[in-house]
Design brief:
Elements: H1 2-15, E1 19-21, H2 23-31, H3 51-63, E2 79-81, E3 84-86, H4 91-104, H5 112-117, H6 120-126, H7 139-150, H8 159-164, H9 170-180, E4 187-190, E5 193-196, H10 199-211, H11 233-240, E6 244-246, H12 248-255, H13 265-289, H14 295-308
Antiparallel strand pairs: 1-6, 2-3, 4-5
Helix pairs in contact: 1-13, 2-13, 3-4, 3-10, 9-10, 11-14, 13-14
């Protein structure tokens, strides 16, 4: 799966009009990569509980894990859980904390029928902003994705049983997700090139692998199948490092916070370039350390670095989409 996606992205980059990579800057990134950021996070903060509930937590989170940036003139969303503010530096972590709190308080997120009947005001209450924060954008679209997830009852009794039916395979788990809930699909077309990104589904698999990486029964046996996750953070950190070079017109639009349309050549090229850049970075890290890291490790390094130095980076591209 990963190799096919990388090959498709390389084909896009060969034809790209708006982006290119700087190999020397990629080498500098590899040379300076902190080893601790190549570790695989355990995703054990925000929810402690039974393994089945942990799967429910991570699946539900990734069903709505997309498009957090506020509309112009609006405040960023973050939330409050047990008196603590969460999500101020990364809204995704706030959503995780809010869903974890809901599960602990008895909200039946793992009940497919309940999800199908979930109302917008109920979801808004779960994802309520903290005092002084803005509203979480795309609430209707997030509700639609949870309804879509709930219809997975046709294929499995619960998120946990959907995970179990993958029989230890991350690749099979992603196929299960997309089959049970088509809203997880994320495939784009660039001319005659098909790009099976499936960002949220693969990220869900990666987070579940991280959670159970030390569990000999539940850990996926094929984590190398998990690709890098093409979103808006990776192009941002790569551009900030000089490894991703944009055409002047595209750079100006991103810097002005102009929207980049979903499925436009510019958007697809940004996603494809991030995948190829991460693959080249992985090869360079392998040359340094003797063995290449897994792609999900490279993704964590890029994503976490982008979050940590966000105020020093150029703006990320703003594409309203349920894909990322």
């Amino acid at each position: 799966m990963s190799d096919a996606l990388v090959a498709a992205c390389e084909a896009v980059l060969d034809k790209a009009m708006y982006v290119r990579l700087d190999d020397e800057r990629l080498q500098r990134m590899a040379d300076s990569a902190p080893p601790h950021l190549l570790a695989i996070p355990h995703w054990d903060e925000g929810f402690e509980g039974h393994a089945d509930d942990a799967v429910t937590w991570l699946v539900t989170h990734n069903a709505i894990n997309f498009s957090y940036f506020p509309e112009p003139g609006q405040q960023r969303w973050f939330t409050q859980v047990s008196g603590e503010l969460v999500g101020q530096d990364d809204e995704a972590l706030g959503v995780m904390a809010a869903l974890g709190s809901a599960l602990r308080s008895g909200v039946p997120l793992g009940d497919w029928r309940w999800l199908q009947q979930l109302e917008e005001d109920e979801l808004a209450a779960i994802l309520a902003p903290a005092p002084g924060a803005g509203r979480l954008p795309m609430l209707k679209e997030r509700l639609a994705m949870l309804h879509d997830l709930g219809r997975g009852q046709r294929f499995a009794a619960s998120p946990a049983s959907l995970f179990e039916s993958a029989r230890g395979s991350a690749a099979r788990f992603v196929e299960n997700l997309v089959t049970a809930a088509p809203g997880w699909e994320d495939t784009q077309q660039y001319g005659d090139i098909t790009l099976p990104f499936r960002k949220r589904a693969w990220l869900c698999a990666a987070m579940i692998f991280g959670r159970f990486q030390d569990d000999p029964i539940r850990a996926f046996h094929d984590p190398e199948a998990i690709p890098v996750f093409a979103d808006y953070r990776l192009p941002q950190i790569l551009r900030g490092a000089g490894a991703l070079v944009l055409a002047d017109a595209l750079a100006a639009r991103i810097d002005a916070h102009d929207p980049i349309a979903a499925d436009s050549p510019e958007e697809i090229e940004l996603r494809a370039a991030a995948i190829v850049a991460a693959e080249r970075l992985r090869e360079k890290l392998g040359a340094i350390h003797g063995v290449p890291p897994m792609r999900l490790q490279v993704d964590h390094f890029l994503w976490r670095t982008a979050v940590q130095v966000d105020d020093k980076l150029p703006p990320f591209h703003r594409t309203r989409t349920t894909r990322y």
